[in-house]
Amino acid sequence: MKQPEIDWSNLSFSYLKTDFNVRCTYKDGKWGEIEVSDSEYIPLHIAASCLHYGQEAFEGLKAFRGKDGKVRVFRMEENARRFIRSAEGLKMQPMPEEIFCEMVRKVVKLNERFIPPYGTGASLYIRPLEIGISPRVGVSPASEYLVIMLVTPVGPYFKEGFKPTKVCISREYDRVAPKGTGSIKAGGNYGASLVAGEKAHELGYSVMLYLDPKEKKYIDECGAANFFGIKGNSYVTPASESILPSITNKSLRQLAKDMGMTVEERHVPLEELASFEEIAACGTAAVCSPVSEIDDLDTGDKYIISATGEAGPVTTALYNKIRAIQYGEEPDTHGWCEVIE
Ligand SMILES: *Cc1c(COP(=O)(O)O)cnc(C)c1O
Question: Is the pLDDT of residue 160 over 70?
């Protein structure tokens, strides 16, 4: 197989064209065959419901080239189930788990030459998405849906080890509504967060740390990632109806338990920030991104989490553990990885 000319160690998190994508259409009440395409474009009706009324949801997962040369995909059944919940939340046709997993296996195999070599810290990012494609001018759900999975090689988020960043809080912005679409992976949530995100960047912060949209008392999400804090022997993460249930967070909770820690899923009051020894955001892209400082733009309060600007020991241990499982360096005791043959 011809290797693409890619500087694997210097990849960023951006789109790079690969060989193929896979597609599957729901039409006449059923899902069709999985189709393979080498086109980066889709023919789409100008009145498609995804364009007008936001019938779109997506997923994000990764495939890793392991130490033993094998390719592992991390917890794809979890992504398949969340994809179903997202579809249901937008009145779209949910794709059965088996078809989802088959599409993942297929798109990874077809683009095998784009899976970064072991040791580069890079991986193959898999992006499934579903859109309503029937023409709709009146507001109602589509009857036809398209699921596409594309892949792109991505670099490690932190090239020279962790770099903790500063985040900010502002009550001027919400990511989602209290009983809205926060718990599903709708593209619209991202569109709605761009203004706040750019505001945070302009002020020199990596992301906006959102408070719960109802009472503005509790920590909700850290940009488009889940929040966790370490306090003594506890891993603390918000329980909230308006956050996206992160599979990384779920995995970290399990690993924290394995390490003998107590896991607390509960409301995290804003004032509690001062008492955490470590704070990080978590998600597939970065696994963990440590937070060094949180500035409340409304009150002027500053929470210094890491005075040294270094990631804490627990965050580092959790990060190393999950990466070791993903790259097949340590036994996958929870059965999280599927080897793609
Ligand atoms: C995707 C996403 C996450 C992270 O979920 P993972 O399954 O860990 O990748 C967290 N928050 C939001 C809003 C997301 O969209």
Answer: no
Q: Give CA–CA dist 126/152, Å, rounded.
A: 7
- Atom nearest to 61 CA in ligand 1: 9
CA of 223 to the centre of ligand 1 (A): 10
> For the chain, which residues make up each domain, given as ranges?
8-154, 165-326
pLDDT, position 267: 98
Predicted confidence (pLDDT) per residue in 313-335, tens digit: 999 999 999 999 999 999 999 99
pLDDT digits (tens, 9 = 90+) for 209-244: 999 999 999 999 999 999 999 999 999 999 999 999
Judge if the beta carbon of residue 226 lies within 6 A of ligand 1: yes
Distance 220 CA to ligand 1 centre (A): 12
Ligand 1 mean position, distance from CA 61 (Å): 10
Ligand 1: centre distance to CA 183 (Å): 10
- Could you tell me the pTM of the whole model? 0.97
CATH of domain 165-326: 3.20.10.10
Domain 8-154, CATH class in plain words: alpha beta
Q: Whose CA is nearest to atom 10 of ligand 1?
A: 225
Q: How far is CA 151 from CA 1, 86, 105, 116, 136, in A?
A: 18, 20, 11, 12, 29
Handedness of CA 90, 91, 95, 97 (dihedral sign): positive
Q: Rounded mean pLDDT of 291-301?
A: 97
CA-proximal residue: ligand 1, atom 5 (nearest) = 246
Q: Is the CB of 185 under 6 A from ligand 1?
A: yes
Model confidence at 4, pLDDT cuts 50, 70, 90, reads confident
- For residue 90 and ligand 1, the question of a CB distance below 6 A is answered with no
- Tell me the average pLDDT of the chain: 96
DSSP character string of 228-266: EEEETTEEEEE--TTS---HHHHHHHHHHHHTT-EEEEE
Let me know: does 130 contact 92? Beta carbons within 8 Å: yes
How far is it, in rounded angstroms, from Cα 295 to Cα 287? 23
